[in-house]
Design a protein that fits this description.
151 residues; alpha+beta; Thiol Ester Dehydrase, Chain A; 6-stranded antiparallel beta sheet; 3 helices; 22% helix; elongated; Thioestr_dom; hydrolase; fatty acyl-CoA hydrolase activity; EC 3.1.2.20; Medium/long-chain acyl-CoA thioesterase YigI
Length: 151
C-alpha cells in the first residue's frame, strides 16, 4: 500500500457509524470487528438465513461482506467529507463456506486521490481452523460533493 496515513483523524468513528447504517449488513447479521488505516475486518456468523441450497454460506452473502470490507478499508484513507462507492469487483470462490463464522479482511492495495484498489480475503472458521474460501479484488471511488453520498 502506498501511504496508510488516514486523511481523517476520526476515520474509525466515521467507518463504524457508516457501517451501522447499512441495512444489508444488519439483515445478514454481520459485525464490524476491526478498523485500522487501510484495513477493515467484518465477521458473519453462519446460519440458515445466509445459506444456499446445499447448506453452504451463499456466495451473495460472501460477496456482500467482502465488498463492504474492501470499501470500508478504502474509506479509512479518504478525506473526512468523502463517501466511497464500489466501481467494480471480482470475486474468486475457492471453497465452500462451511463453518461457524465467516471473516472478510479488506486491505487497501493502492489508495489514490479518486480511485482506490483493495483486496479482501475471506475465511471460514471451522472446528477452530481458518480456511481461505474467497478472494475479492475491488476498485473503489472517492465521492465528494455529491448529494446523498457521504460517509
Amino acid at each position: 500500500m502506498n501511504d496508510p496515513t488516514p486523511k481523517d483523524p476520526d476515520y474509525e468513528a466515521r467507518v463504524r457509524a457508516s457501517f451501522a447504517r447499512q441495512g444489508l449488513m444488519v439483515t445478514l447479521g454481520a459485525s464490524l470487528i476491526r478498523v485500522a488505516p487501510g484495513l477493515v475486518e467484518i465477521s458473519l456468523p453462519t446460519s440458515n438465513a445466509v445459506s444456499q441450497q446445499h447448506g453452504f454460506v451463499h456466495a451473495g452473502a460472501l460477496a456482500s461482506i467482502a465488498d463492504s470490507a474492501a470499501g470500508y478499508a478504502a474509506l479509512t484513507l479518504m478525506p473526512p467529507a468523502a463517501g466511497v462507492l464500489t466501481v467494480e469487483f471480482k470475486i474468486n470462490l475457492m471453497a465452500p463456506g462451511i463453518g461457524e463464522r465467516i471473516t472478510a479482511r479488506g486491505n487497501v492495495v493502492k489508495a489514490g486521490r479518486t480511485i482506490t484498489l483493495a483486496q479482501t480475503d475471506v475465511f471460514a472458521l471451522h472446528e477452530g481452523r481458518e480456511k481461505r474460501i474467497a478472494l475479492l479484488m475491488a476498485t473503489l471511488m472517492t465521492v465528494e460533493g455529491r448529494d446523498g453520498v457521504t460517509s
